[in-house]
Amino acid sequence: MSHRELSNNKLIIELFREYYHKAHLKLPEDFVLREFAIQPFNSSTYIRHLSFQKIDDLASFIEKNTPKHLYYSSARYENPGLKDMESKKWLGADLVFDIDADHIPGCTEVKIWLCPNGHNGTGDTSTCPVCGAKTKKISIIDDECLVKGLDQLLRLADILIEDFGFNKNDINVYFSGHRGFHLHVHLDDKLARMGSEERREIVDYVLGIGLKMESLKLVNEIRGRSRRLALIPRINDYGWRRRISKSLLEINIDDMLKNYIIGEVKPSSSTIMNKIENIVPEVIELSKVFIDEKVTIDTKRLVRIPFSLNGKTGLIVKEIDINKLSIFSPSLESLSPFRGIAKFTPDISLKNIKILGRKISLEKHKTHTLELGLAVYLELKGIGKIIRIQR
Ligand SMILES: [Zn+2]
Prior knowledge:
Largest sheet: 4 strands, antiparallel
Oligomer: single chain
Strand content: 25-35%
CATH class of the largest domain: Alpha Beta
Strand order of the largest sheet: 2-1-3-14
Bound molecules: zinc ion
Number of domains: 3
Helix content: 25-40%
CATH topology of the largest domain: DNA primase, PRIM domain
CATH superfamily of the largest domain: DNA primase, PRIM domain
Structural class: alpha+beta
């Protein structure tokens, strides 16, 4: 690591240190039962199996070891600080969901590659086309994807509350600090003991895996001489039929059908079903919620601590009011804690990239004046270096 790199890295560490000095991390009430873990700067390994009896102890640990990433376990343990997983004695875990732009169909990212010999370009390649060296790949998510992710989050919350009957007050949602959202359901002691198999059932339901078409009664069936007419899903239905009826209301269907779905009128004819038969596959696809299944079935997941910083971006893992999900708008002002401006030198040129409501163009090796939050984001992404901070 060159001297310049090291000294600039120090600027970011100092910014993180200042943030944590004042930050109000949100910890679960049972934090003494949780394992904590940090990934420090300039290290690819985690410091794991930490446990704290008092919030102050955690604060002074963070004061001494500025984290690049900071986590606690979704699991509760009798002995969270022990290294051996068996001896920790698992007591149960929150139900956690991760919605990542990676998993959302139609989400686009700007892909950039950099090679150690100074070549770079846009696209998704693991070897440098100029010199054949192994590249470092960087992706910048489009703002549109965050909006799509938020829509997925709304659907997920709706399923958990309406279909599973979880209490809204036990559900917390967070921006991940990068390109997605986390949803935590605090479970009572009994439900918290659900294993991976049970959690897998929930995942399947959300993702629509193993969905039995015939049980949805969405298409006319002819069996021998009898003809069973399909039933149009209505908003008062339960489960997947309710989800499908909601999706139908989101797409362009005629008013008579719409009114029927919301329960205002009686069907005027049995042929009304023909109006939706063709779009059933599309509507089912639209009703799926694209969660990261690995995260939910894992009963010992490390999750980012709310209001910590995501070291990939310098953005806050921010709580979103579940009642205001639809009005949450991801912006640099609301998600970056860093104010002021910075002189920033990029290693590559970029044109018209949208990041958190800003549209930027960068010219390789030229010094640019950028908002500090944006400069931190770009440096952590590996796109260049902050030379100076002005506040
Ligand atoms: Zn190269």
